[in-house]
Every structure is written in structure tokens, then in C-alpha cells.
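PROTOCOL LOG
Step 1. Enter all chains and additional molecules of the complex.
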Amino acid sequence: MSNTQQYDYQPGHLTASEPNKYGPGTLKKEEMVLNMGPQHPSTHGVLRLEIVTDGEVVVDVVPHLGYLHRCFEKHAESLPFNQIIPYVDRMDYLAAMNSEHAYVMGVERMLGIENDIPKRVEYIRVLVAELNRLASHFIAIGTYAMDIGAYTPFLWLVRDREHILGMLEWTCGSRMLYNYIWIGGLFYDLPVGFEERCAEFVRYLKPKLVELHQLVVENKIFIQRTAHVGVLPMATAINYGCAGPVLRGSGLRYDLRRVDAYSVYPELDFDIPVGKGEAGTRGDCWDRNWVRVAECWESVKIIEQCLKQLNGKYVRTRDFDPQAMVPKKIRPKAMDFYARAESAKGELGFFFRTDGRSDVPVRCKARACSFHNLSVIAELSRGGLLADLVAVIGSLDLVMGEVDR
Amino acid sequence: MYATLIIFLLMVPGFVVVGVYLERKISAFIQDRMGPMEVGKWGLLQLIADLLKLLQKEDIVPKAADKWLFLGAPFVIFAAVFAAYAVLPLAPGLSGSGAAVGVFYLLTIVSVDVIGILMAGWGSNNKYALFGAMRSGAQIISYEIPLGLSILCVVMLNQTLDLQAISFQQGIYSPEPVYLFGLKDLGVDVTQMGGFLSWNIVRNPFLFLAYIVFFIASLAECNRAPFDLPEGESELVGGFHTEYSGMRYALLMLSEYGMMLLVSLLGAILFLGSWNTPLPNIGPLRLADWTSGEPGTWLGYLTGAFWLLTKALLAVLVQMWVRWTLPRLRVDQLMFLGWKVLTPVGLVLFFVSGVWRLLGV
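Step 2. Run joint prediction.
Step 3. Record the structure below.
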């Protein structure tokens, strides 16, 4: 038997959706299939959920994926390493800097140049990555509040995020998909005056974060809607491979910035907030959201320290070239390599297989955090109400670009 | 009176124009935005642009829908809301129908709303619409009980179901003497002072609590946030009006805003002194006399309508403020609030109001 298998061609495969798991044969008399998505306001993109409902009670949830599949991994197999970076941006489009950072670090380690990167470059990378983490968390918290039914926090957070996007646009000319962090360096140094503007932004942001806390996190109705809802026990979270705020919301102090201590994170002082079940049960939706809010404060702390370093020890000099260490030829030795970093949504990993003869990876597999976080959705929402399902989806902070890649 | 019919016919859509614009500007203010700014000065013509757009849209009837239920539902909802205006007094001597059972009629005709919503939800043949309609039915019926109880407190105090008679009792034109806090034994006759001293919430201080119950229940009655579950966007897309488009959608929006104004007007009439001025006569300072005209004169009509609409619009503003601040409740929490909090509170207030009335006589 040959090892190639003919793809089973179906005439309607381009237009037909994946068939439902439940049908008239498998449903009980009182149950009904409700199709949520791919166009639905609270599935955060093009997620399709097949929900079996008994009245308002959710009996089972089956996610159907693939509506935003853009063949990232296949594209990566035909592109040189440095040209894959823009594709990495488009995975988690809300936290492109974090994805770039993870990817670039992986390639640098394969090349063995990770210790030659100038410190200023490393600090700038951490600075922009943390800014982008803030932006990503703002969208997560804002859309979550919107899922719960409060519109105002979303627009407040989008207003604040706009300042971050403006700053990041200033660094590289793009608002969301940056291609700023390069293998071995950066596209540009920070523009002159960036540090001051960033410091001013931090001063502006702090009172806004307090306001956010009062409007959303401590709101009585918000607590009612999210506490004790979608409780994710720590063991389940680990078994499903959840990471990031979803895992930390369940109480495990696991943050790759500390665990792997990559880049300049060991030199920075910040805490890892974990869910304590303050409003309800540990690992409920409120905890996951609270972890994100607390992480915003930690990111602010990191940004302040980075700014201090960038204004002090590693201040800009006339002859500093952020592209000095960028290799002319990116050709790692033949190996299998896995690199990971803490993205805004959790552990973002890249697996590379290289043959040592070309600067194109033979295989590049991305371990997307949203994909793993999505997999617990059925566990969390079974037995809850339809409105709880929406609360659960929002608390997982899914970005479909990353789930489908 | 035909005049009132015409006034209300013009006023309700007029309010929708003002209300939608206000809602947009208020939400923009709360959310640190500008709101509509492009069409006309400060976006004043935005609603006309919206209306033109809605009029041009195709009136889509889903293939699987029950055509007549689907097509008729918006009219049932609109008729139910609009018919309720018939008994509202706009000013002294200016009310559509002087029905002696105004309050009773109002409570019943508003319930017809539910039939329209169920028709829309069932007729759309859409699961989201069905969910929305079922939620809406459960919600409106549940909240009618605390609403009815809080209204009963007023009826007990005023001893009438006629909204115009209730209005007259709350000001300087009261046919019978009004005592401070409704207590004859205090011996303070405020009939000549009028103003807020003769409002129902002052005549029986417990009616202030009843007004809060009324306000919360009325939010649920008109499906406004935080009780907007029937059209909870993040769960049910559009709820019972998911499938509606074009003019029919506009009609549903019209009834929603009409309902907002209706409950605000009703709250103002029952609790906040109706068309009477809030300013009392203090000695030679005849504030109440100066700010209210004789019943039946043009000045009387104008000042009456002015005060009533001011009060109602203030309540509408609070409704909007609430909507843009609070998240949405869940179905079970909504039922909990309705049955286990508001209904007992309403019953206690009902009892207390009865005792108060007995003390006052």
C-alpha cells in the first residue's frame, strides 16, 4: 500500500459546513440543536458552536472549527524563516508582538545567537510585547463585559487601547500586524521620544485601570453573572493543556515568563496573579477575568521598569543599530526544535524541523494557546444556562485566527 | 378628545426621534465618544437618515416563517403600546379618554404586548427568536405582579382608577383637602401650597419605595437593560426581532421607545405628581400658582404638558443611564429578582400603604 492517500473529494466541500454531531437520531425528545455562529456577536470571530439545549439549559456543546483557516503551517513550509514573521503576526492578531517574540526567539536559539542580541533590543522587545499584552487583555476584558451585557467598558478600553496602537504604529508603521521584531534584532530602533510618550501613557492609564475595576470587576451584576459559573478545576485545566490566564485562573502559578525565564524577564520584578476564588469558586469565569485585570497592572509594572532601563543603562546612542545582529543567512543545523513563550493568551509554542540545507523549515507547527483553551468549552458549559455559555466563551478569550491558524 | 389623539399620534413618533438621538448622545457621553456627528449639525439629522435607510430596506419574510403571524406581530405590539396612551392625561382637561378604569385598562392593554412578541418569536420560525419570545413572555408576566402591586398602593391612596382624577389629587387643584404626609392628625393642610408636598410619594412616604419597585419592574416590562434578555444581543443575536428588517423593524423600535415613554409617563402620573408643578406656594411666594395655569385654559394645557413631559423625560434619562452602565442579568436571576425580591417587597408595601391610608383618614 502506498503511503499517499487520495483525498476523498466531495462536490460540495467548499460550501458545506462540517456536519452536526447531533441529529434527530441522537437527540432526546425535549432537546434542540441551536447553531451558534459562525456569524454570532459573542463567538468572538468565526467560531461555530453546535449547542444541544433543553430549554435554556445547555446539554452539550460541540465546537466546529476551520472558518478562519489560512494554512499558516503549510505556508511556513515554503518561506524562509524571516518571511514567516508576518504570518506569525496574523495568528493572534490581537497580540502580534508577543507571537513575533516567541517565534523569533525560537529561530535565534536554533541559530545559537540568542546570547548575542544587544540588551537594548531585548528590552525594547519586552516593552512592545508587554504593551501588546495590555492591548490584548483590554480587548479580552472589554468584549467579556460586552458579552455580559455592559457596553461601556468595551468602549472605554478600546479608547485606551487606541493609545497603545498609536504608539506601536509609531515604531513600525502598522497598527496591528507589526513585523517589528526581527530575527537577530528589530526593524527599527524606537522612535525618538517614544520613551517619554510611553511614560505619559502609563501615567494616564493607571487611574483608568482603577475605574475599570470599579465599573466591571466589582459590579454586583457582573459578579452574579460570572462567579461560580464555568468552574475549571486545576486538574482539568492541566489535562486539557490550558495555559495563560485560563490556567492561572484555576490557581496554578504557571507563567512561562518566570518558568522559562527567557529574554530579560529574570531581571524584571513582577508578580504572577492567580485566581483565588475571591468572588465565587476558584477557577470560575470571574477569576479568569480578574487574572487578566491583575496582569494589566503587572504589565504596567514591567513597562515602567523597561522604560527605566531604556532611559538609563541602555539608553539610545547615535551608533546603535538594531539590525546589527540580523544574520545574513538564516540556516539552522538539521534538528527538531521547540520554542515557547508566554503570549497574552498563554503558552505559544513553535515546533521547527530543519534539514540544515535551506533557510526554509521543513515543518513549522504552532502550538496555539487559544486552541487548547477552546477545548475545555464543553466541560465548562455543560449543565449551565445559555447565558452562562456566553460567559464561558468570553472568559476563555478566544482569538479564532490563532485557533484555526 | 380628538385633539389628544392627534397630540399623542404626533408625540410618540416625535419622542422616538428625540429618544433615539438622546440615547445615542447619552451613550456617547458615557462612553467617551462623540456619537453621531456627520449628518447635519451635531448629527441632528441622523435619525432621518436612519429612517430613510430603514424605509428603503427590503421587507424580508423568511421562507419558513408563518407569514401572517410574522407580518402581523409588529402591528400587534405597536397597537398594544399605542392604545395605552388613550387614557393618559397630558394636562388638566386634556386626556384621550376619561375612562374611570384607566389604570386597569392600562395594565391589561400593555399585556397584549406579550401576544405580539410571542407571535413574532413563533412566527419567525427561528430558534433565537423563539428563545427571545419565551424569555420575554416569562419576564413580562412575572414583572407585571410587582408592577401591579406598586400601582395598587397608589390606587389605594387615591381611591380611584381614573388617571385624571389621580392627577388632580396631587396638586393645588385637588378637589379634596390634601394633608402633609397624608396624615389628617398632623393637621397641616397643604392643599393651597401644592407643589411636591402634595405628590403621592410625599402623601405616603412609602410610595417612594413603591416607585423604585415600579421603576425596576417597568424596566423589565419594556425589555430595557439590565433586563433586555429577550433581545440579549450577546446570546440571542436579536431575540424576537432577529428576522425583522426594514419598516417592520422600525415599527418594533418605535414600540420599544413608545413603551419607554409610556412607563415613564405612568410613573410620573402615579407617583411624581402628574402634570402638577413641583414648586410649592410658600407664603406670598406663589410659586405653584405662577407655574401652573387654570385647568381648561391654554396656559393650563401648556404648563401641565410641560411638567408631565419633563418628569417623564427625566425618568427616560435614568433608564438610559442604567442601560449604559449595568450588565445584563441571567434568566434565573431575573426570575429571582421578580418573584423573591420585588413581589414580597411589593406585598409589604401594599400592606403598609393600606395601614397608612387608614391612619390618614
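Step 4. Note key features.
Chain A has a mean pLDDT of 87.
Strands of chain A lie at 32-36, 48-54, 57-64, 181-182, 185-186, 335-342, 347-354, 363-367.
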